[in-house]
């Protein structure tokens, strides 16, 4: 379902920020070769940041400290066994444009699993504590044509419920992801940032930090309040255990993580 490459994107932000600082550390009084980088958590975000930071800092040897509360690394990249069945504990989806995390999984020889068509056409239900407020038809037939018809009717159902808001939400997510992608540009073509604020302003992401996700989606993107109440809240809750009152930037990252997954049904 909706997952959290989000946290990774944020760490990636941290990473993009940290690397130029390291590379320019000789010119700052607080830096130097004895700089220490502290990373909190050794999930895929923290451990990949440590890895790439080491790899990119070829001329410097920053001391990297990772703080991890568990005895093993990996964070939520794990399976838990409950009643004899294995479940993903988290990090079950990586955003395909999260290139560092994706390269990191290659390095660890992890292989991706493409959802089978029966899994991806699974029906959607949203439970509000008392009953289902949204419930699509279940397309689990062996007949492709039946699944297509069911998914067509589900599309109409969602359109009647949310209007163009789903499309607008997808547009907002694409736009935000594209802003993030600017950080992949090499330091030859982008500035070296002195502060988080400067870095976010450069990519056009700073304004999102001054409002809640809800404010941005209502006033900026003009989404139907119903979509925010039902779907957006579900996404922020699953990813971060928060409501749509979460910071606009964190919320946008959260939605990016849920990306296409919903639109596919
Ligand atoms: C990921 O790996 C590919 C293939 O080796 C490489 O071309 C690309 O630059 C890497 N991306 C990042 C962000 O390191
Ligand atoms: C991944 O596979 C390559 C080639 O088989 C191997 O050299 C490398 O040690 C493996 N990496 C890990 C982390 O297991
Ligand atoms: C951010 O907000 C400021 C002040 O309201 C505005 O001038 C600027 O155009 C906004 N930037 C973006 C990228 O929306
Ligand atoms: C979100 O913020 C609004 C306005 O500040 C507040 O009334 C509401 O209770 C908050 N919702 C949650 C779930 O925190």
Could you describe the 3D structure shown?
Belongs to the prenylcysteine oxidase family. This is FARNESYLCYSTEINE LYASE. It comes from Salix koriyanagi. InterPro entries: FAD/NAD-bd_sf, Prenylcys_lyase, Prenylcysteine_Oxase1. By secondary structure, the chain is mainly alpha-helical. The protein has a domain at 1-114. The chain contains ten helices and six strands, in the order H-E-H-E-E-E-H-H-E-E-H-H-H-H-H-H. It has a two-stranded parallel ribbon with strand order 1-2. Strands 3-4 form a two-stranded antiparallel ribbon. A hairpin with a 2-residue loop joins strand 3 and strand 4 (85-88). The protein binds 2-acetamido-2-deoxy-beta-D-glucopyranose (4 copies). One 2-acetamido-2-deoxy-beta-D-glucopyranose binds next to helix 3.
What order do the helices and strands come in, and which of them pair?
Elements: H1 5-23, E1 36-40, H2 44-56, E2 63-67, E3 79-82, E4 85-88, H3 99-107, H4 117-120, E5 125-127, E6 132-135, H5 144-162, H6 165-181, H7 196-203, H8 213-220, H9 225-240, H10 248-258
Parallel strand pairs: 1-2
Antiparallel strand pairs: 3-4, 5-6
Helix pairs in contact: 1-2, 1-10, 6-10, 8-10, 9-10
This protein binds 2-acetamido-2-deoxy-beta-D-glucopyranose (4 copies).
The site of one 2-acetamido-2-deoxy-beta-D-glucopyranose has 2 residues, from loops.
Write a brief structural summary.
Its cofactor is FAD. By secondary structure, this protein is mostly helical.
How many β-strand stretches?
6
Largest sheet: 2 strands, parallel
Give the termini separation.
12 Å
- CA radius of gyration is 21 Å
Query: What is the 3D shape?
Result: globular
Oligomer designation: single chain
């Amino acid at each position: 379902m909706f997952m959290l490459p989000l946290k990774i994107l944020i760490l990636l932000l941290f990473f993009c920020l940290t690397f130029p600082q390291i590379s320019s550390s000789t010119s700052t009084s607080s830096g130097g070769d004895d700089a220490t980088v502290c990373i909190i958590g050794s999930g895929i975000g923290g451990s990949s940041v440590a890895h790439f930071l080491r790899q990119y800092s070829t001329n410097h040897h920053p001391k990297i400290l990772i703080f991890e509360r568990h005895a093993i690394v990996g964070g939520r990249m794990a399976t838990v066994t409950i009643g004899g069945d294995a479940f993903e504990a988290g990090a079950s989806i990586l955003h395909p444009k999260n290139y560092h995390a994706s390269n990191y999984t290659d390095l660890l020889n992890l292989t991706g699993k493409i959802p089978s068509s029966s899994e991806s056409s699974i029906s959607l239900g949203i439970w509000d504590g008392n009953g289902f407020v949204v419930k699509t038809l279940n397309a689990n037939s062996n007949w492709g044509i039946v699944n297509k018809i069911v998914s067509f009717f589900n599309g109409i159902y969602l359109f009647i419920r949310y209007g163009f808001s789903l499309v607008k939400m997808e547009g907002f997510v694409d736009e935000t992801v594209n802003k993030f992608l600017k950080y992949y540009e090499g330091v030859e073509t982008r500035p070296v940032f002195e502060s988080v604020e400067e870095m976010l302003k450069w990519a056009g992401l700073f304004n999102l930090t001054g409002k809640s996700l809800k404010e941005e989606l209502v006033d900026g993107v003009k989404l139907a309040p119903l979509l925010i109440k039902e779907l957006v809240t579900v996404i922020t809750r699953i990813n971060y255990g928060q409501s749509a009152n979460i910071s606009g930037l964190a919320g946008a990252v959260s939605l990016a993580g849920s990306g296409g997954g919903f639109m596919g049904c």
